[in-house]
Amino acid sequence: MDRLDRRLSVAPMMARTDRHCRYLLRLISARTLLYSEMIHANAVVRGDTTRLLAFDGAEHPVGLQLGGAEPDALARAAEIGQAFGYDEINLNIGCPSPRVRKGRFGAALMETPDLVADCARAMIRAVDVPVTVKCRIGIDGRGSYEDLKAFVETVAAAGVTSFAVHARIAVLDGLSPAENREIPPLRYDAVYRLKQDLPALEVAINGGVASLDEADAHLDLVDGAMIGRAAYADPAMLRAADRRIFGAPVRTQPSRHDIARAMLPYVRRMRADGVPLHHITRHMLGLFAGQPGGRAWRRALGEGSHRPVAGAEVIEEALTLVPEPAAPRDARRPGAAQTMTLARVPG
After folding, report:
1. Which of 75, 145, 245, 335 minimizes the number of CB atoms within 10 Å of its CB?
2. Which residues pair with 224 in a beta bridge?
3. CB 90 within 8 Å of CB 63
4. What does the longest C-alpha to C-alpha distance in the chain come to?
5. Cα–Cα distance between 131 and 148 in angstroms, integer?
6. CATH classification code of 8-240
7. Which residues fall within 8 angstroms of residue 130, CB to CB, at 6 or more apart?
8. ∠ CA(282), CA(246), CA(211), 5° rounding?
9. Where are the domains positioned within the chain?
10. Whether 222 contacts 191, CB under 8 Å
């Protein structure tokens, strides 16, 4: 398959980047690479794979992030992910949670680069889609640049050519996952140096990237930028991504109202399948972040979406609480907003 364009991606986030979140983000940016939440390989192999892995075809390009430390299980889970249609399989070597560490996967695997290489090698042999790795710049006790470079070289020797690197170490003893996202200092220079020293590898930077301006600046020194919680808190920040990051000829950005309305057919379809409304609308709470009426929007969705019979009308009613800016002149044609919002740029 064609090489994926990883100049901009939204990071895998537990309890956030599920299929409903990704569908919303895809309406906003046609090109940005999206990822699933981390799913343990054993859950994929032994669990309800349809519930865990099913997604809408509109979400492409989309990657499946797996966790685990057993090469055979990861290889089988990667096969299943490919069969479901994921464009990439990503191995998580960055999660610092105590539960993950207890299971000896995630960031704890930076202690054992040879095992990570074995896992990656097994996955690469099992699938035709790209196998990538997301890691930290280090962990407590192994936080030097030399440790990072040695880890990446070992895993690259197994066939991995693309790494997304969170520019903080993970402190496995003494910090919570939330603290690990804030307290260890960002060391972007280590990621820049990694790309400089290993130019044949594709290196994307993650951690603290809060805007398209910041992502664009990183792209002068690395191959890709990965935005996490900033994109979840204000998903509309991605409206300019196709034009600014990918150079796509997008004439007019969809408004936040356009995006919300474009979600309505999807909401109706999911509700008909029995999906509770709040499973979808919880990802839409930030759609009007920082805008007049944004607080009323969040309150209306939060209060209305938990009713057992709640449907798309909750979103329609919430939209009436948010002032709508005047549409640009070329967007006033009938149906123009829908065209702008749902357009797909060939990738």
Report:
1. 335
2. 204
3. yes
4. 61
5. 19
6. 3.20.20.70
7. 3, 4, 87, 88, 89, 161, 162
8. 50
9. 8-240, 256-342
10. yes
Q: Phi then psi for 203, rounded to 5 degrees?
A: -125, 120
DSSP 8-state symbol, 136: E
Residue 312, number of CB atoms within 10 A of its CB: 20
Distance CA 174, CA 3 (A): 40
Residues 6+ apart with CB under 8 A from 99: none
The dihedrals phi and psi of 92, each to the nearest 5 degrees, come to -80, 115
Write the pLDDT tens digit of every residue in 207-256: 999 999 999 999 999 999 999 999 999 999 999 999 999 999 866 788 99
Cα 118 from chain centroid? 25
Question: Strands of 224-227's sheet, edge to edge?
Answer: 8-10, 224-227, 202-206, 162-170, 131-139, 88-93, 62-67, 34-40
Q: Are 125 and 75 in contact (CB under 8 A)?
A: yes
If you search the block for the tokens 């996952």, which residue do you land on? 177
Residues comprising the chain, all counted: 347
User: How far apart (Å, rounded) are the C-alpha atoms in residues 202 and 207?
Assistant: 17
CA distance 149 to 238: 32
Q: Round to whole Å and give the CA distance between 138 and 144.
A: 7
Closest CA to 304 of 291, 315, 296, 293: 315
Handedness of CA 245, 248, 254, 260 (dihedral sign): negative
Structure tokens at 265: 């057919």
Q: Is the pLDDT of residue 335 over 50?
A: no
Dihedral sign for Cα atoms in the order 132, 53, 236, 306: negative
pTM: 0.93
Residue with the two structure tokens 């479901």? 84
Q: What is the mean pLDDT of the chain?
A: 92
Q: Nearest Cα to 149, choosing from 197, 201, 192, 81?
A: 197
Q: Decide if 184 contacts 171 (C-beta within 8 A).
A: yes
Q: Among all residues, which ones are annotated catalytic?
A: 95
Q: Which two tokens mark 41?
A: 């390989």
State how far the Cα of 261 lies from the Cα of 241, in Å rounded to an integer.
20
- Among the listed ranges 116-130, 286-300, 319-333, which one has the minimum average pLDDT value? 319-333
Cα–Cα distances in angstroms (integers) from residue 107 to residues 3, 20, 131, in the given order: 27, 27, 18
